[in-house]
Amino acid sequence: MELLFSTDSPPHHAIAAAKISGISLNAKPSLPTGSPPSLLLETGKRLCGTNVILRHIGRISSVPGFYGRDAYQASQIDEWIDYAPIFASGSEFESACCFVDEYLLLNTFLAGYSLSIADVAVWTGLAGAGLRWESLRKSKKYQNLVRWFNSISTEYDSQLSELASTFLGKRGSTKVAASKSKEPQASNSRSNTVENAVHTTETAGTRAFEVDLPDAEVGKVKLRFAPEPSGYLHIGHSKAALLNQYFAERYKGQVIIRFDDTNPDKESSEFVDNLLKDIETLGIKYSAITYTSDHFPQIMEMAEKLIREGKAYVDDTPREKMQQERMDGIESRCRNNIVEENLKLWKEMITGSERGLMCCLRGKLDMQDPNKSLRDPVYYRCNLTPHHRIGAEYKVYPTYDFCCPFVDSVEGITHALRSSEYHDRNDQYYRIQTDMGFRKVHIYEFSRLNMVYTLLSKRKLLWFVQNGKVESWDDPRFPTVQGIVRRGLKIEALIQFILEQGASKNLNLMEWDKLWAINKKIIDPVCPRHTAVIEERRVLLILTDGPTDPFVRILPKHKKYEGAGEKGVTYSNRIWIDYADAESISVNEEVTLKDWGNAVVKEIKKDENEVVTQLVGVLHLEGNVKKTKLKLTWLSDGNELVRLTLVDFDYLITKKKLEEDEDFTDVVNPCTRTETSALGESDMRNLKRGDVIQLERKGYYRCDIPLIRPSKPIVLFAIPDGKQQTVAK
């Protein structure tokens, strides 16, 4: 595409959006002064106007959510695009900065949970303001706005630096902020590959993907997310749910939620309710909720139809023998029973009689096929357990292999997304649909998300619940959505992590570190800072010249983010420090007391076992804090301190990757929860459940149980930061 514009008014945001998207633009400053920019498309058609071109790039971009994930977000983006030109107005520049800063207090991006053309429009507006923005950026006046601006600058460094140097020049911000993080930055190089009909574009550590679904028509694509209500949604299901939503948005189609409730032994209404809760947490927009059980009468009619057509038969072969015969390609002795005999036994199955309970219904496919899934799979089994929705109305239930191709067809699904673990059963799916006389539903495969030291089988997770190894399905050691959110993960981090994986079919084992590192980037700029001292063997430091009458100073909870609020800090001549700090101090050593100043330790008292029991020192507030080796966190001794329980977690299993034939109970980690008693500053009594904080020099924590009464401690769950990864013993 060719972008034409005048030298006095290049469309900065459209150029930036194209660079971030990896869209090739041939930019030519060839139009007369004052002319609106125009975009010449490959079809020969032309678009005119700065915002028109930006919106077009947003629509064709493969970056997820670049022009919103739904109509509401797209409308939000339109509002911001219309607002962005205000930054070119000298008289209104600072009031606009104030407005956006207040908005970003509770938002990571301007619209939704990911970068959009709204962010690009406002970012380029600020960058184009030149020194005026740079002076504000270096001040502490608009900290939310600066945090947002610097985050985008760092994430898209190569693209935006080139834009600034080429088009903004002296007038704009030509220096993109360097990341303050010591973490290695992902490669900024762009690579385009076509593999399995997936076009991937990698830019600045993020991956966007564009999938060509077979025979897909814009506006006519219908997808389904079909969890079995036998557990809570976990991180693997989240990938399937978000990919379904992504493809529906891409093709302007729809997603339905279907509960595959065909096994009453495992399913319950509790699981249905919590799955819907988790789906809402992920922000999945669905058009309808259906249940496979809604179709039971029609599925039974189809089963009888196939029996009459000789495409299914009733088999009373014992299960173990049947499995062996399928492996060996041996036909069942019941395979050639006449239709009348099959119908008679089918009715026995329907009534749940003693004879019927000995039988199952099998498809008559091909017992010699190399693909064993086609060797007469089971279509129906008897089960006398009442169903959680429809009670004891049925004594027979269809298998997933049989009902899935049926329900997909009758519900009008155009494309069924399945993880690649089902690859060998795709031929079976199509064969069953053919026998039923239905149209073909296209299958699109994606790789299952596997995490190190993690079990994603609901059967195995249920074992941990039933055997008391975890509290419940929302236990913070579980990979369920509710579990990892309770551990302290922000849902924006989960969405970003999964969308970065793209639609690849390549199987891979993912590290949790990457997910937690994304989470840290979200929580660190805004979470309040507090101080705690480990209770065990804590050491009293007596400052002989310290204030005998305690006094309180009001300090910010986050020095770079005013929105975190303020707290009162008590100063006195008796302060507690951690034992680990106390034993590392030498006599006459000068140390720094954080948020106070320097002090010199004059005396170290120890017991008969050489354990430090008390320190005595004097203040030296005029000392140089840059020259001290130890920077100590401390708490003033007093009744206002609150009791804390700091909880750390480890993996539930001790092996990084479990082999298919390996018994997971052999590698269960015997110790996965560690509790440490601590004392916290008085302001922590105001914490609420779900609050995320940082304990200075100890890490990030989520409040699981706030202060209820003084005799009960506040319970804080440690949040991994992507660096200090626990290794199972």
Topology diagram in text:
Layout: E1 2-6, H1 12-21, E2 26-31, E3 38-40, E4 46-48, H2 50-60, H3 71-83, H4 93-103, H5 117-127, H6 131-138, H7 143-155, H8 157-168, E5 192-195, E6 198-203, E7 206-211, E8 222-225, H9 235-250, E9 254-259, H10 269-281, E10 288-291, H11 296-308, E11 312-315, H12 319-328, H13 339-351, E12 360-363, E13 378-382, E14 396-398, H14 400-410, E15 415-419, H15 426-436, E16 442-446, E17 449-451, H16 458-466, H17 481-487, H18 491-501, E18 508-510, H19 512-523, E19 529-530, E20 532-534, E21 539-543, E22 551-556, E23 566-571, E24 574-577, H20 579-582, E25 590-593, E26 597-606, E27 612-619, E28 631-632, E29 635-636, E30 642-649, E31 673-680, E32 692-695, E33 699-705, E34 714-719
Q: Give the oligomer, counting copies of the same chain as homo and different chains as hetero.
A: single chain
- Assign the structural class, choosing from mainly alpha, mainly beta, alpha/beta, alpha+beta, or little secondary structure: alpha/beta
Q: Main β-sheet: number of strands, strand sense, barrel status? A: 7 strands, mixed
The N- and C-terminal alpha carbons lie at a distance of 57 Å
Strand content: 15-25%
* Low-confidence runs of at least 5 consecutive residues: 169-209
Across the major sheet, the strand order is: 19-32-33-34-30-31-20
- Principal-axis shape: flat
Give the fraction of residues assigned to helices.
25-40%
- Rounded mean pLDDT is 88
Number of strands: 34
Q: Give the number of helices.
A: 20
Radius of gyration: 31 Å
